[in-house]
Amino acid sequence: MPRYMSPKTIDRYTQPHQFEPLLPQQRLDELRRPARAVVERSLRLAGSAHPATIASLRELVRAMNSYYSNRIEGQSTHPLNIERALRRDFSDQPDVARLQRLAVAHIEAEQELEQRVAAAERPLTATFLQQAHGALYGRLSLEDRTTSEGRIVVPGALRTEQVAVGRHEPPLWSSLPAFLDRLDAAYSRPATVDDMLPAIAAAHHRGAWVHPFLDGNGRAVRLQTHCALWPVSAGLWSMSRGLARARDRYYALLDAADSHRHGDLDGRGNLSEKLLWEWCDWFIALAADQVDFMARMLELDAMKARIAALITYRSTLDKRIRTEAIVPLHHLFLAGPTPRGEFQQMTGLGERTARTLLSRLIETGLVASAGHTAPVQMAFPLDALQFLLPELYPEAATQVP
């Protein structure tokens, strides 16, 4: 949470040259090689399952992004409460309900912003960062966007007072337009495949450094980062998951990259190029870890084995769940929406038994359908994730406090 200060207290950062460099200039190949590998593996990942299955996973990742981004801020709600909130089932406890509303706003904002990227808007711009903030806070009531100090967060509005964030003193509020213009000049141009991730990493830090909003800067920057990665991630893997699981390291490296230049060998800008490079290097390695993790989760033979383990386990608890569901469920993962009759035939069971089995799979959320006669497709309910996608979202398997 930022501290609010008198405008006379801070007059240090008033000129955009004071937060140069905006991109590392040395040892670029050491960033570009792993960055290209992340992009290539991520693009392959998007072709590892049917588009309908990818769409179901994307919904799960949006909810997960909401959980982890808010957890970074110390304001997360339980995944089951997020799931209930998406059904408009809010807690009667005011604090829990407020966090539920924040989670839903984050999910809806992310979806809106993804559509902007799909419509060819450039995500690494100051305008998009303001849109990210506005998309999130514009979905919250006045009460829900009032800080604990009683200040009202105006969606997308630049701050009009001075703040301090830990040891960092962001630019003077009246200088924000000049700093944001410099961000645009550095990051808004399309980057090459090799330079895409270093630019996204650097923009993440420098956008947070500028601290353009009264509150919600971290959430807005992470939404922007998610959207900047969207052309290669397709929403299938989550930087917020990686950042939350290494929260202390995340904050430590952000803080370190705020530092001034360490002597003549540390670049030519006012801030440390070496520590910006280290932040970018860590960010790219974290992205690689998230891509590789999801690739392991979606590996075809491994998924079939996990489906088998899930159905075998559930069949011991529920007589309506049968192991004959394993093959058709794996087919849904591979082939996407399938006519109900075809799914039932793949079980090898009699018509009535197969219909009962399919109905139970729909009731438990493993199979989704738009209507009683519509095709069926695979889904990923929270209570199945510990089998289907182990360690992706382990908090979903815990009890609601």
Structure description:
This protein starts with a strand and ends in a 13-residue tail after the last helix. The radius of gyration is 23 Å and the shape is globular. It folds into two domains: 294 residues, Fic-like fold, CATH 1.10.3290; 98 residues, Orthogonal Bundle (Arc Repressor Mutant, subunit A), CATH 1.10.10. By secondary structure, the chain is mainly α. The protein has 16 helices and four strands. A hairpin with a 6-residue loop joins β3 and β4. About 1% of the residues have low confidence. The chain has a two-stranded antiparallel sheet with strand order 1-2.
CATH topology grouping of the largest domain: Fic-like fold
What profile does the largest beta sheet have? 2 strands, antiparallel
Number of strands: 4
H-E order: EHHHHHEHHHHHHHHHHEEH
Count of alpha/pi helices: 16
| N-to-C CA distance | 25 Å
Supply the CATH class of the largest domain: Mainly Alpha
What is the count of structural domains? 2
Side-by-side strand order of the widest sheet: 1-2
CATH architectural arrangement of the largest domain: Orthogonal Bundle
CATH superfamily (homologous) name of the largest domain:
Fido-like domain
Strand content: under 5%
User: Any idea what the radius of gyration is?
Assistant: 23 Å
Overall mean confidence score, pLDDT: 94
What is the helix fraction of residues, given as a range? 55-70%
The helix-and-strand class reads mainly alpha
> What overall form do the CA principal axes indicate?
globular
